[in-house]
Amino acid sequence: MPHHPIPLAPWRPVLAGILHRNRSVPYSRYLQLATVRPDGRPANRTIVFRGFLENTNQLKFVTDARSEKADQIAQCDWGEVCWYFTQTREQMRLGGQLTLICENYPDSQLQQVRQMSWQELSDAARSQFAWPHPGKARSETTAFTVAPPDAMQPLSHFCLLLLDPIEVDHLELRGDPQNRTLYHWVKNDWTVEAVNP
Amino acid sequence: MPHHPIPLAPWRPVLAGILHRNRSVPYSRYLQLATVRPDGRPANRTIVFRGFLENTNQLKFVTDARSEKADQIAQCDWGEVCWYFTQTREQMRLGGQLTLICENYPDSQLQQVRQMSWQELSDAARSQFAWPHPGKARSETTAFTVAPPDAMQPLSHFCLLLLDPIEVDHLELRGDPQNRTLYHWVKNDWTVEAVNP
Description:
The first copy, chain A, has helices spanning 11-21, 68-75, 108-120, 123-127, and strands at residues 30-36, 42-48, 59-64, 78-85, 90-101, 158-172, 179-186, 189-195.
């Protein structure tokens, strides 16, 4: 997957401003990712925003190849994140294609990003990838007492997850009436439209 | 739709405790609802928890019949909410069937609940249902200057939305290791299982 430098999307400075204004709370980097299960039902869970993939508008996350979402994304690579910012009372919804960069992903540049994402985690976060299989019957407590994994080389089921938005919906609850802006990626360009909240 | 009194699900006291411990922040009643779009892609947005339908384990929300989610639910009546509680660092995911109680819904008992839900809203919240069509090109500011609608009788596109969970996933990020509990509705009863986080 080549990822040529592309222009900054018009919603990027907006999001950067929101993140800045909500920086006092660490959970402003927590958001909810919706995916579709193999049986066609939706799934939804909290994930952590890890910044943007350089020279793209793709959001970075990390996940465990053993998690249900990895299976879901393998079958339906579409996702929508919903991000609610408590301090400024704003919502950002971003829908687009998901790419899961696991151990066997062939692009060496993205493998490098996967490795860097591993290195940027805390010891505590890295240790979770050495924990027993998520979602399986609870293991003995001792199984969670693991030495911090190597900080340089990712464990095999550590994955980088990318979201490449093509639809972005920004809602400001403050303001009377509220403001809502839609951004669409159409024909290699972004459209921007003010809509009713 | 008859809704006979049923026993309180085992996750109900857990959720009640979480809501209590997070009561200092008003946004602890905000959560994210994932649905599936007619094209099979997921959608995700923030909604407000409005309590439980009496004598059931169904969560109440309200929505506008003109919103995209109403269309989505008409085609795929399955949803999963993801609820992140910032104060206690806990997540609750609840998946189940959605029921949209709009103006023409035939059950008179649920119509009564729809009416009560309207009456429980603030004037400001009710006024939003008198605003121009959500998602359409932005109307003149004057179109949002509406007299508060009648507080007793819901506007025609006001809908009650119910979620009847059959799968509940509770994750406590505090604790080392983290605790995760799954609740499943199987053969008319709830199973409870401790699983790996």
